Amino acid sequence: MRVAITGGTGFVGTHIAERFDPAEAVVVSRRMGISTDDVDGLAGAFAGCDVVVHCAGINREIGEQTFQRVHVEGTAAVIEAARSASVGKVVMVSFVNARGHCGSGYHESKFAAEELVRSSGLDFTVLKPGMIYGRGDHLVDHLSRTVRTIPLFPTVGLRPKPIRPIPVSDFADVVEAAVRGRLSRETIAVLGAEQLALAEAVRRVARVVGRRVLVFRLPVWLHRVFAQLFEWTMRVPLLAKAQVRMLAEGVFEAPAGLDPLPDDLVPRTRFTDDEIRRALPEEGRFGWRDLRVSRL
Fold it and tell me: Does the predicted TM-score (pTM) go above 0.85?
């Protein structure tokens, strides 16, 4: 079986590619010179593939890389290229709370992309994960570097909502099952085994890296201000505006009306110290190199 993976050099895409024989996995990304809205380039990359795993996405807009272009127009191009290359199935990675008419460009564009996949006429699986973590992520990576930089951590909102973090290995199990023929024409939420407050997740990460941290609450509007500043000034923002929306809503509950995940694929790995250690990046703090001006 030959599999193409868009966004294949990103965090999730990299871990999914590792599940397949390198000779059978086609990694597609902008870093390799193929844009997700380049139908001809995509069709060439998809040639001979049985399945496309569509992971490409962004959590903030930069210049021409808008949510509309990357999520909606990019997904339309992936579908057109898949048809041209006679690909049998598209497995799309979306987000658990993606939905229309909610006032968030990220959520709405992801949902619009889901609708394109579902109405494509191709076989499909739409996966709606919650907060995925693992080596190279934006959860354990950012939490560990934050608590090593400053012993303070503000959670989003005066009444924070819980999260259900899922290890990338558990999520990759579901993706692999879909690639190998299961979960046909289904839309499925994939959430972690353990529900906990973000404050507790911060404390666990701090304990694992040997730091003490004071966790406190700040209103959502103030986090939006900080997120905008981070997006303007940091190469990889400590917090993006879309992530503020995610955390303000909570990432812990599957929307109504989705297909159930088979019992053998339900994630069972808890957010333990061992799992956190496996996800930790090389020891480091936030500093000058994380700022955009450091490229000048």
Answer: yes
